[in-house]
Design goal:
Structural class of chain A: alpha+beta
CATH superfamily of chain B: P-loop containing nucleotide triphosphate hydrolases
Largest interface: A-B, 21 and 28 residues
Number of helices of chain B: 10
Helix content of chain A: 55-70%
Oligomer: heterodimer
Number of domains of chain B: 1
Radius of gyration of chain B: 18 Å
Shape of chain B: globular
Order of helices and strands of chain A: HHHHEEEEEEHHHHH
Largest sheet of chain A: 4 strands, antiparallel
Strand order of the largest sheet of chain B: 6-7-8-3-9-10
Strand content of chain A: 5-15%
Shape of chain A: flat
CATH superfamily of one domain in chain A: MetI-like
Amino acid sequence: MTRLPQGLATTPLATPLTTPWWRHRRLLPWLVQGAVGLLVLVLVAFLLGNLVRNLTNAGLLLTWSWLHNPAGFEIAETTLPFNASMPYWRGLLAGLVNTLQVVVLGLIGATALGTATGMAAFSSNGLLRGLARLYVDLIRNIPLLLQLLFWYFVVFLALPNGAAAVQLPGLVLAKSGLYLGQPQLVNDVWQAPLRMSVEFASLLTGLVVYTGAFIAEVVRGGVAAVPQGQWEAARSLGLGQALTLRRIVVPQALRVIVPALNSQYISLAKGSSLAVACGYTDLYSVAETTLNQTGRAVEVVLILLASYLVIDLVISALMNGLNRLVQLRER
Amino acid sequence: MTSPAAATSTTIAGAVMIEAQGVEKWYGNGYHALRGVDLTVHQGEVVVIMGPSGSGKSTFLRTFNGLEEFQHGTITVDGITLGDDLRQIDAIRREVGMVFQQFNLFPHLTVLENLTLAPIKVRQRPQHQVESQALELLERVGIHEQAHKYPGQLSGGQQQRVAIARSLCMEPRIMLFDEPTSALDPEMVQEVLEVMRELAKEGMTMVVVTHEVKFARQVASRVVLMAEGRVVEVAPPDQFFSNPQHERSKQFLGQIA
């Protein structure tokens, strides 16, 4: 770089160019930036133009009025009341609520399971450590879709009904569903304040077990990142195990854990769209039926894309907020 | 006990604070780190442990508060025999302060919080009382203006002085120092040794693993030389440095001189 006046790096380009543009330290990045921007614009314009042209030719230009037509199909289980005479949009909304329901419960369950298993890696109990390791290695390496099929067909659909159902304190597992609270057998049919369908239970279990294994590794890595000396200093001060974890180790581990947790949460939300594997009617599955009936492929896919994007952006925003909370002050 | 130690036993008045007998330790890989170590530390004594690296001196020191486990022998600290009872180990740790080579301050807590956490949570003492004591201690080690800074903002020497103050805030009866000046820049060694000298003068029972010969000469009641997992020689510093009895001691002093 020949005789650039001092301070040029912080002042606008006022002096005439003495250096050729292709090796100018400050000009070059702007030129590259501009070129990339232009390229993106051209590409987007081409794709959009193409889309609109083809849709127009096929008489399929985006319309949304069909959303108000009666859906004509039923959804097996919904939290938001729905029947076949209600419009498509209501069906899609019911599907979204079903998705959100499994995602929220899944996140809570996976976090609890993952944290417990991740911490078990530091147990002095060799059996516990081994089991945690086995769980992570086994579950991480089998595709989620296969695991969902396993939970649905091999575990939950194989449950007996009636008096033969698996009865645990406050919980009954039967082919007709999972009953929580104080389940009672009335006329050979289980009744309880809370019931989960086996479809929902399979999906929830699959998502929790699968994501829990990844979260366990995240937690283990975060705790392992806290230097051994921190444990030793805490111990030598007489802080017990619980206090050492709560006040010394966890606050330092969370800084490593939370950003990595974000990815796992997002992946659970996206993974919930495999619900169809265990017969649970989530947003994706309602959308598929809607698409088949209306033929509005582009609109339905756009709705799906936007829905999952928004869910994941909300999760990310929450996790980023949490991340700011756990980025401890050290200066 | 070796004969030089027996010769000095008449000059030691205080009660026995640490009694280690026949301590043996193997690491998981089979390495025999401690091969039957005996040591008795009396109240008010400053025992300096020296020795080449790998001699087991840090490992031995760390057995006193249960940071290292050992397989054979007995260690009694302040009347409590170290065993498998977690409550007893915690009881010993409350009475024994430890200062590490790498300081090991809690980076996410302020200097003041580093000092007050354990006394408030473990000793259950009122916060205002602990805080005023902590500020006094910080003044004693010469860094009370830094009370609300974070460890990362302090120099190594300052961090080590905070670490000493943190241990003292638990009002321990014994202080262990594991190479407290080895990780410090040369110009910061003296400020830490000065704090340790003061502590010794006030009668604190101290066991110090260090390579600082001058400190050992001036402050130690006795010097212990360890090599290959054994105690080679125990002697008052004058005798140890000018007239070592054992071949291994002469060799070690020749190497560090």
